[in-house]
Every structure is written in C-alpha cells, then in structure tokens.
Amino acid sequence: MIDTKQISSLVDAVASVIPEQLGSLPENTQKNLRATLSSVFMKMNLVTREEFDIQTKVLAKTRKKLEELEKQVANLE
Length: 77
Description:
mainly alpha
C-alpha cells in the first residue's frame, strides 16, 4: 500500500518546481494529481520498503540454508 504522505510529498515537490510566473498549483489540480498518482501506483502493484526488506531477509536466510544443505549433500556423496 502506498503511503498518502509520500504522495502528498511528491505533489508538493511537483508544485515547488512550477515557475513563479505561472503561479501556484490550484488546490483542485493538486487533488487530481494526488488521485492520479494513487491510481497509477496501485495499478503498478508496488510493495512497500518494509515488505521488500522483509522478503530480502527471508531470501538471505533461505539462501544460507540452501548452501548448508548443498554442503551436506556433497559430504554424503
């Protein structure tokens, strides 16, 4: 799930790079941009950093166990 604070931060970053001559980003445009970004990110099926880190740890543990088992098999052969 994408954090709404991160999306708001991204919208604020976009608003901050708009040249002063064009004025500020209207509130309804900011709302539309937030909604669009949320929709796009949901369709991308992204994972959170926390989920990614957990899976990285699980993979490292699994890899270590596999290496140990490969050594055991090699010793038995």
